[in-house]
């Protein structure tokens, strides 16, 4: 009887429930639910934090001795690093760079350091040029700022991985003190021997067991997301041909140029209209760059972009088809920088 019931197929039913039938949940709703989860081991976590705080003097000693610090370990290190940075603020200017932000533009961050902290009125250049400019400033004997601290949350973030050489240039200056955190298990692989020498790291375990609430707040994790974030767009582009990447670049550069031209206060408000490019103009520009040979090929490529929600389109009241990427100019600039 046991084996008959075990192998019987008459009473077996397969559920037709799928994940797509679940009601969509926004990020705000998810946060509200997670905020109600009680914190476990409060006393142990408080003890762990107090032990880390006792190391503040040691960290300060290492920084002033010419070393830079990299923190590793499980849990978000952002809050504790910011507390330490606040104490360092009484000693010298502190700049904080959030490497976990998917649309981070390191060039803009370095420009703010040069213009707002160091009061340098020099035309901006590339990331490498700005790093050399800032480092050269501290090599001067007549600089008004004696030293500074740079805190980089998630130096292994996607937008910073290709700028490690520039960050190493800053870290190699004895008057620029760098504190950074890493979370990726293969983070040390982004540094070659030359970079390791320049960074001159001292490694500290800063395990906190705190949730990565802020670091993951920019991820598109819901099923109702209407467009990809910058990280998702780069992931899609990585699987496409060079011609397809060129098609995307033309539209992205057009939107950036139109946004720069329309720099009125109204256009900078949240929810402002994203620049749109007429379909015919878009096709002509791609054909002139020899990215497509026919409209059928162009339409096929657009369909692939639409399937991935990278490019969207709509029809104007006069019937003209308008094409656009549902991202702002700053995010598009970061994506183009990541494509290079």
Tag the structure with descriptive keywords.
340 residues; alpha/beta; three-stranded antiparallel beta sheet; 44% helix
Characterise the protein shown here.
The protein is built from 14 helices and eight strands. It is α/β, with parallel strands linked by helices and 340 residues long. The strands form two sheets. It has a five-stranded parallel sheet with strand order 2-3-4-1-5, with helices on both faces. A three-stranded antiparallel sheet has the order 6-8-7. Strand 3 (148-153), helix 8 and strand 4 (176-181) form a beta-alpha-beta unit. The radius of gyration is 25 Å and the shape is flat. The model is unreliable at 221-225 and 264-271 (pLDDT under 50).
Number of helices: 14
- Report mean pLDDT, rounded to a whole number: 85
Task: Note the main sheet.
Answer: 5 strands, parallel
| Regions with little confidence, pLDDT below 50 for 5+ residues | 221-225, 264-271
The termini sit apart by 68 Å
Shape: flat
